[in-house]
Design a protein that fits this description.
The protein is an alpha/beta fold. The protein contains 11 helices and 10 strands. It has one domain: Vaccinia Virus protein VP39 (Rossmann fold), CATH 3.40.50. 35% of the residues lie in helices and 20% in strands. β7, α8 and β8 form a beta-alpha-beta unit. It starts with a strand and ends in a 12-residue tail after the last strand.
Length: 314
């Protein structure tokens, strides 16, 4: 008698049903794209929720950090100067999980509307609000309740009025078409499992002539998959960075023009020695495959101006 697995009638897939109520063993189905995206989203939500709670309890937002310990990694430290730090509550600075300083590099003008994707504790929103002045507006978008609560607390402490934090996902921005002058983000787009949708949404909400100005982790060139995964796990806690040419191509496919990728900080194997050694890797041996291939970048792009008439684009 051949070995078979009994399956309760109410649970048996129709395609596996047999006349005698049994089914042959089959491989577990591969997860769908939707399953993977949901897993990534839930991991990100959990990670950032825990980071917000650590800051609220007097700790740091850094991966693996606990209350009373600071962040000593080369990615999230020394991004904001003393003048900027003096404009915001300490909790906003402690909650930063970014890899750059988009507000220092982006052109922000009085009266403009700015949107920060994945605004976390609100640091870049609060700094942007001061840059655009009382006639401008700074929105922060985040999907994590704990971060939104922390951001609103920081808003009250900062005494800034032209700020609004929105709950939502960067793949589905809760703002109307053509409503934003500048979109900023700090090391968040790399966490999305659907970056094409994120970039299409940013293009939709930007006004014609609007600017895309984000900091993100980017990779350069080919490398062994296991090394890429380990380095990106160290850099961003979740591996998801785009190769620089892919980033450029995806922005262009979304409709953007004047695309630039500017390196702001290069990561090297030595920076991650302790982490990589814990992964069982020979840091000296893999250094040539790591050095110069992982970096923080400032990515700029522009939504082209709309046509002024039926023949102006011909």
């Amino acid at each position: 008698m051949s070995a078979r697995t009994e399956i309760p009638q109410g649970l048996k897939p129709a395609s596996l049903a047999t006349a005698d109520g049994t089914a042959e063993a089959v491989p577990f189905p591969e997860p769908s794209d939707a399953d993977i995206k949901n897993v990534v989203k839930n991991v990100v939500r959990q990670k950032y929720g825990e980071a917000a709670l650590r800051v609220s309890s007097g700790g740091s937002s850094c991966c693996g950090a606990t209350a009373s310990t600071g962040c000593c990694d080369p990615i999230t430290t020394n991004l904001y100067d003393a003048a900027q730090a003096g404009q915001i509550p300490e909790e906003a600075l402690l909650a930063s999980l970014g890899c750059g300083n988009p507000t220092a590099l982006a052109q922000l003008n009085h009266g403009e509307t700015v949107l920060d994707l994945g605004s976390g504790g609100g640091i870049d929103v609060l700094l942007s609000a001061r840059r655009v002045g009382p006639t401008g507006k700074a929105y922060g978008l985040d999907m994590t309740d704990e971060m939104l609560a922390l951001a609103n607390a920081n808003k009250r402490k900062a005494g800034v009025e032209n700020v609004e934090f929105l709950k939502g996902e960067i793949e589905s921005i809760p703002l109307p078409d053509n409503s934003v002058d500048v979109i900023i983000s700090n090391c968040v787009i790399n966490l999305s499992a659907d970056k094409d949708k994120v970039l299409r949404e940013t293009f939709r909400v930007l006004k014609p002539g609007g600017r895309f100005a984000v900091s993100d982790v980017v990779t350069r060139g080919e490398m062994l998959p296991e090394i890429r995964q380990s380095i990106l796990a160290w850099v961003g806690c979740i591996a998801g960075a785009l190769e620089e040419n892919d980033y450029h191509s995806k922005l262009a496919a979304a409709g953007f023009a004047q695309i630039e990728v500017e390196t702001t900080r290069i990561y090297r194997a030595e920076d991650a020695r302790e982490f990589l050694a814990g992964q069982g890797m020979d840091v000296d041996a893999i250094a040539p495959q790591v050095d110069g291939k992982f970096f923080s970048a400032f990515i700029r792009a522009v939504k082209p101006l709309a046509c002024c008439g039926p023949t102006c684009c011909s």
